Automatic annotation (TrEMBL):
Species in which this protein is naturally found: Aquibacillus salsiterrae
GO cellular component, one term: cytosol
Family: Belongs to the NAD-dependent DNA ligase family. LigA subfamily.
GO terms classed as biological process: DNA repair; DNA replication
Primary gene name: ligA
Protein name: DNA ligase
GO MF: DNA binding; DNA ligase (NAD+) activity; metal ion binding
UniProt-annotated catalytic positions: K116
Protein's UniProt keywords contain tRNA-binding: no
Full-sequence portion shown in this chain: 1 to 328 of 670
Length: 328
């Protein structure tokens, strides 16, 4: 392929991806599957790598996610909320493992594997033990203040037993039963149903009237700590335990793995078992456990070098209960 052909293809991919992003993040109403989106993004990344002179700061490959909405107050994230690099198969995971070990110059690394909850990334800020602010990820630097909506999620503690300021991060989601009930109601009222639970959760949390979010039975899993000056824990797994001790809801399925082989077993287990969950997952997140190692590896502009998201492939996308119910 020559440069002119590459440019034409890159422009077309950028136009498509910009449109998909707008539909997904702003309208909460995607027109293509995540798999299709990810394929186009990979194609764009490959072309941009092969033709670096065609790279541009405005490319959708260079952004974390959505623009903040206009209506909510803006929140600046003290620690950026980034995206994750993707893996689509065992080879990508083994490459990641190699890069991590080379970067750290070590022979063995422990990883934490977590379910990748298909919801909306949010941050919760506590000051003097009180929940004072909740925000969306937005573009990673600036999010929307959705505190009033998040306060309606019953599993979010409004008080915790910790005086120091702490910001915890997680994924707000809509359980499948709530999603089915909501779409049934929408259809009864002649309204357009939501495409999937992720978009329903995002749409609910971005309503200006918190009474609407309160009716939607949303839930949350917390999986990270953002800003926390007083933090002393040495590993991500210790942090997950600590979050649970503080009263946050963490996902019980996470595992600490001593090798990439163990990680791959965990991934394969969930490829088969994901349909047994009552919430959607779109992959597995793998994180280097030791925080010192995370710090040594650092970040690219878009994502940490110490974590990767394994995305389930299209053929692994099982028919879910609501696919059946919506089609009858
Ligand atoms: P991502 O889906 O690759 O993963 C990063 C996100 O995973 C984090 O920000 C967090 O929100 C989430 N996450 C869930 N569980 C987690 C855990 N245990 N630990 C850490 N993070 C966890 O990246 P993204 O930037 O959020 O979204 C991009 C993806 O969205 C695309 O790859 C595509 O699948 C989808 N998308 C689809 C369309 C469409 O039109 N269908 C459009 C835009 C984006």
């Amino acid at each position: 392929m020559d440069q002119a052909q590459a440019k034409k293809q890159i422009d077309a991919l950028r136009d498509d991806l910009d449109r998909y992003n707008y539909e997904y993040y702003v309208l909460d109403n995607p027109s293509v599957s995540d798999y299709e989106y990810d394929q186009k993004m990979q194609e764009l990344l490959k072309l941009e790598e092969a033709f670096p002179e065609l790279q541009s700061k405005e490319s959708p490959s260079q952004r974390v996610g959505g623009k903040p909405l206009e209506a909510f107050r803006k929140v600046e994230h003290q620690v950026p909320m980034l995206s994750l690099a993707n893996a689509f198969g065992e080879e990508d995971l083994r490459d990641f493992d190699r890069r991590v070990k080379e970067g750290l110059k070590v022979e063995q690394v422990s990883y934490v594997c977590e379910l990748k909850i298909d919801g909306l990334a949010v941050s919760l800020r506590y000051e003097d033990g009180l929940f004072v602010q909740g925000a969306t990820r937005g573009d990673g630097t600036t999010g929307e203040d959705i505190t009033n909506n998040l306060r309606t999620i019953r599993s979010i503690p409004l008080r915790i037993d910790l005086k120091e300021t702490i910001e915890v991060r997680g994924e707000a989601y809509m359980p499948q039963q709530s999603f089915l009930a909501l779409n049934e109601e929408k259809e009864r009222n002649g309204e357009e149903p939501f495409a999937n639970p992720r978009n329903a959760a995002a749409g609910s949390l971005r309503q200006l009237d918190p009474k609407i979010a309160a009716k939607r039975n949303l839930d949350i899993f917390l999986y990270a700590i953002g800003q926390w000056e007083a933090g002393t824990l040495a590993s991500h797994s210790d942090r997950l335990d600590y979050l649970r001790e503080l009263g946050f809801k963490t996902n019980p399925e996470w595992r600490r793995c001593q090798s990439m082989d163990e990680v791959i077993d965990y991934v394969n287990f969930w490829v088969d078992k994901r349909s047994s969950l009552n919430y959607d997952i779109d992959g597995i997140v793998i994180k280097v456990d030791i925080l010192d190692y995370q710090q040594q590896l650092g970040f690219t502009a878009k994502s940490p070098r110490w974590a990767i998201a394994y995305k389930f492939r299209a053929e692994e996308v099982v028919t879910r209960l609501y696919d059946i119910e919506l089609s009858v």
